[in-house]
Design a protein that fits this description.
With about 625 residues, the protein is an alpha+beta fold. It has three domains: about 290 residues, Aldolase class I (TIM Barrel); about 150 residues, Sandwich (Jelly Rolls); about 120 residues, Sandwich (Immunoglobulin-like). It contains twelve helices and 28 strands. α8 runs parallel beside α10 and α11 packs antiparallel against α12. The radius of gyration is 26 Å and the shape is globular.
Length: about 625
């Protein structure tokens, strides 16, 4: 076994693996360096996934029918290529340590189905999980089996791999033990004591420590509302709690800015040398209070492990000494726990490493599906081609004969607008050199969404460079019907698959905001305007009514605003960007194509506006400078 996966099976029930190097640490997330030779330059994947259509009830026969229909509808010629088996295709347990097909639903095995799909000129995708079990319960997750599973996928001719995050051992993920929070938060911290030659000083966490990022909280210890028990009154000096990484699974937490917290001490020393650090702490196993501590001195990770458990979350004790070498002058000590992100990155990396070992030349699309829990926009690009940004877009999946149900509004994740509200401000995390934000499979053609909603759903996903994974029973579609007209719109697909590979930026919204491209807005009585630079120097512009009421009123943007917001992205290099942006801004006129009506007009003002939008409707334009 190699470095990432050695001893994983033996240690599967103890604690997460040691990080194999600095490149897996939080501090490397902004390096833009991928791991394990991950391939770049993949455009967003297009295809079909079985989950929204059939849930766990998918079969080989249904999948073959979807492949036949994809070709019959001509969707393959438009770029839809991947047919992906989601949960429910394996036996409930491994057979001789290996993944195996469910006998009734997939009687001929996965290789035969793969061969059939490939014979249609399409590509074959499968599903698994970085935990011990799949989300539907089968005890066949990849944890501890990464190498053998990866070889199975290569042997089956898999071209696309979606990997979920249920029953994950090292975090309180869906269906995991809630006490697994102990891995991903520090203990409550009251103070640190630094001891060296002729030096000893205690630093109070509340008075002397500085909280960076978001999520941490200082508990004063003197207020009756503070969570200190009577038996702990002798320790009532206050403490810091909540040091970890925000859970991004649900709506309401912005993906932009620091998603983690650290407790930082700046310590001035008159002499360099060896020191011992003692931490006064209290452990827990709940959200905000854990048992795992990371300690960095001047950006060098010194300690990364459990601290011994205490009786309660406020029964403070002092740790054993942690040896560290410090320099003369100012030293920065960081107490933190970034393991929520690091553990998950490492688990996905192990599977990628297995694919590399099974076939060094593979080009498997790797779809990370941990629902935004660990803020994958920070690290997903290192190993994945896309990363889910929230929990599922629908929990009302279909079955054979039942199309399932989608929604336009929902305060949680299962709606078009919930997924869009977060994905639309995540453009800076995406690109050909990284990968793509994934607001989940499309619900076009499911009950609950009318034709207008589905048109706007399609426009949103295409503008945002989201993977275009259909989630309906394709036997319900006929060439020329309204569903086909939406999913086969070549003008919109061309935006999603544009060679320039830039996610649209929200450049204006009718809601009051300081930063339309960065503010996380969840109120839907608004119109958004998205702009997307394209490879030929054109710009796609989409006016989107988020509301379920018509919008009457002028919404205007001009070339000055467009260039201000996306000018630097209008070509791949700085010289080309300046030239492309300048050419767009100074054009004498613009050819404007409405991508829904195909109407072509000439604009000579450089001002683009709408005066009315129907409920949940959009106007999406391709603007070419003359």
């Amino acid at each position: 076994m190699n470095n990432l996966v050695q001893n994983e099976t033996q240690n599967i029930s103890s604690k997460p693996s040691k990080l194999p190097g600095k490149e897996y640490q939080f501090d490397s997330f902004s390096s833009d360096k991928v791991l394990l030779s991950k391939k770049k330059q993949h455009l967003p994947a297009m295809g079909w996934n079985s989950w929204n259509a059939f849930g766990s009830g998918n079969t080989a026969a249904l999948t073959r029918a979807m492949a036949d229909q994809m070709v019959a509808l001509g969707l393959d010629k438009l770029g839809y290529q991947y047919l992906v088996l989601d949960d429910g295709c394996y036996k409930p347990e491994r057979v001789n340590g290996l993944l195996s097909n469910e006998d009734v639903k997939f009687p001929e095995g996965f290789r035969a189905l793969s061969d059939y799909i490939h014979s249609k000129g399409l590509k074959f995708g499968m599903y698994n999980d970085i935990g011990t079990n799949l989300c539907a319960g089968a005890a066949v997750g990849t944890c501890g089996h990464e190498m053998v599973d990866a070889k199975s996928y290569i042997d089956w001719g898999v071209d696309f791999l979606k990997v979920d995050n249920c029953y994950y051992l090292w975090d309180n993920a869906t269906f995991s033990d809630a006490t697994n929070a102990k891995y991903v938060y520090t203990p409550n911290i009251q103070s640190i004591r630094l001891v060296g030659s002729k030096f000893e000083q205690t630093f109070d966490a509340v008075a002397d420590g500085k909280l960076t990022g978001l999520g941490g909280r200082k508990v004063d210890g003197t207020s009756p509302s503070d969570d200190l028990t009577v038996s702990d009154s002798q320790n009532a000096h206050g403490y810091v709690t909540g040091i970890g990484t925000f859970d991004g699974t649900n709506t309401g937490t912005t993906p932009i800015g620091p998603r983690s917290c650290e407790l930082v001490f700046d310590i001035d020393l008159s002499k360099a040398g060896s020191y011992q650090l003692f931490v006064t702490y209290a452990t827990g196993q709940e959200v905000g209070i854990g048992s795992w501590l990371q300690l960095a001195a001047n950006d060098e990770l010194i300690y990364d492990d459990f601290l011994p458990a205490t009786e309660t979350t406020t029964s403070f004790r002092e740790s054993d000494g942690i040896a560290l070498t410090l320099r003369e002058g100012t030293n920065k000590l960081r107490l933190m726990n970034h393991r929520r992100q690091e553990n998950t990155l490492l688990s996905y990396a192990k599977l990628l490493e297995g694919l590399n070992a099974a076939d060094p030349n593979h080009d498997v699309i790797f779809s990370i599906c941990e629902w935004g829990k660990t803020q994958p926009q920070n690290w997903g690009y290192k190993v994945g081609d896309s990363w889910r940004i929230l929990n599922d877009i629908t929990f009302c999946v279909g079955r054979d004969g039942d199309p399932g149900r989608g929604t336009w509004f929902d305060p949680g994740t299962p709606s078009v607008t919930s997924q869009y509200d977060k994905a639309v401000i995540m453009d800076e995390f995406a690109g050909l050199d990284k990968g793509w934000n994934d607001p989940d499979m499309m619900m076009i053609g499911m009950n609950g969404l009318d034709e207008t909603m589905c048109k706007t759903h399609m426009a949103m996903w295409c503008m945002m460079n989201s993977p275009l994974m259909l989630g309906l029973d394709l036997r319900r579609v006929e060439k020329g019907d309204w569903i086909w007209n939406i999913i086969s719109n070549q003008g919109l697909i061309a935006l999603n698959q544009d060679a320039h590979g830039i996610q649209a930026k929200r450049i204006y919204t009718t809601k009051e905001t300081n930063c339309p491209d960065m503010d996380y807005i969840t109120e839907h009585d608004r119109v958004d305007v998205l702009a997307k630079p394209l490879a030929d120097g054109s710009v796609a512009l989409s006016f989107i009514n988020l509301n379920n009421q018509p919008w009457d009123g002028k919404v205007t943007v001009d070339t000055e605003l467009i260039v201000k917001m996306i000018g630097k992205k209008m070509a791949t290099g700085p010289v080309e960007a300046v030239a492309s942006a300048d050419a767009f801004a100074t054009a004498s006129s613009y050819q404007v194509t409405d991508l829904w009506t195909q109407a072509i007009s000439v604009n000579e003002t450089g001002v683009f506006e709408i005066n009315h939008l129907d409920a949940c409707d959009n106007v999406t334009l391709r603007i070419k400078p003359n």
